Amino acid sequence: MRRLKEVSALLSVTADSIAQRLCQLAEQRLGPPPVPYAFVVVGSHGRKELGFVSDQDNALVISDDFRADSHSDYFAQLGNVLCEELNQTGQMYCPGEMMASNPRCRLTYFAMARDTTRLDYCTGA
């Protein structure tokens, strides 16, 4: 059992590095983000329990300075690019669509703090 936990932790740390690099590459491709954001992993990845067949569970938490009329397109593209690239690295799409490519999983910090139902949807709680 200890070895399994070590492997899961190693897979999770590796996936963290991959996600971080994919964020950098996506920003190079799309340009700098209009407001700050965090790409947040939840589920087995967030718990550091990734396995070889784990799916993606992630979200974008965006600055409260977010303005839908001028920033939505950027973050929709970012979410789509990140999830597609993660899929190409072997992290399969979430069957429940709990991913940053889903508009329900792109939310401001204030909305995340206020609307736990929406956060629960994104975290699978």
Automatic annotation (TrEMBL):
<dbReference type="InterPro" id="IPR043519">
    <property type="entry name" value="NT_sf"/>
</dbReference>
<dbReference type="GO" id="GO:0008773">
    <property type="term" value="F:[protein-PII] uridylyltransferase activity"/>
</dbReference>
<dbReference type="Pfam" id="PF03445">
    <property type="entry name" value="DUF294"/>
</dbReference>
<dbReference type="InterPro" id="IPR005105">
    <property type="entry name" value="GlnD_Uridyltrans_N"/>
</dbReference>
<feature type="domain" description="Protein-PII uridylyltransferase N-terminal">
    <location>
        <begin position="3"/>
        <end position="109"/>
    </location>
</feature>
<protein>
    <recommendedName>
        <fullName>Protein-PII uridylyltransferase N-terminal domain-containing protein</fullName>
    </recommendedName>
</protein>
